[in-house]
Design a protein that fits this description.
By secondary structure, the chain is an alpha+beta fold. The protein is about 25% helix and about 35% strand. The protein has 3 helices and 7 strands. A 7-stranded antiparallel sheet has the order 1-7-6-5-4-3-2. Strand 3 (about 60-65) and strand 4 form a beta hairpin.
């Protein structure tokens, strides 16, 4: 008998003092303004990170030597409400499309000129039980700091 591994998604939510359209734009096309270059999977030194803002587009980083490393691909694109992308990184923090998890980010109006941003990182079980739990633990601890950097950029712009 095969027992299916099930790993709970990571869910994070935050309030941003900015309209959903602006918050969506800062998270996606403005990614390079708030994502820290120290957090990456490709060659160093890094010179930037970007998202191709369209269905099928990449979230990728660029190294100073010209190397581009894909972090994931956009699989749902519904501006300014939400997007879903693959997270093509294994538990060793190396690029790996065979164990992709998913990240969904929703932008929900939350009062006058404000947005509730909800992030769900899921499908860790595709990595296997031990590797999936390791990645889940890592991103559960990492997303809050990233989202705070995003919030600060969205509210400042």
């Amino acid at each position: 008998m095969t027992i299916a591994v099930r790993i709970a998604p990571v869910r994070k939510s935050l309030h941003v003092k900015a309209a959903p359209e602006h918050a969506f734009a800062v998270f996606t096309s403005g990614l390079g303004r708030w994502w820290p270059l120290a957090h990456g999977i490709g060659p160093t030194p890094r010179k930037g990170v970007a998202m191709e803002t369209r269905l099928g587009g990449r979230w990728y980083e660029m190294a100073q030597d010209g190397t581009e490393t894909t972090i994931g691909r956009i699989i749902v694109w519904e501006p300014p409400r939400r997007f879903v992308m693959t997270w093509d990184i294994n538990s060793q923090w190396k690029p790996d499309t065979t164990v992709s998890s998913e990240v969904e980010v929703r932008f929900i109006p939350d009062g006058a000129n404000a947005t509730r941003v909800e992030l769900e990182h899921r499908k860790f079980e595709q990595m296997g039980a031990e590797a999936g739990e390791s990645m889940r633990k890592d991103v559960d601890g990492g997303w809050p700091g990233m989202l705070e950097r995003f919030r600060q950029e969205a509210e400042a712009a």
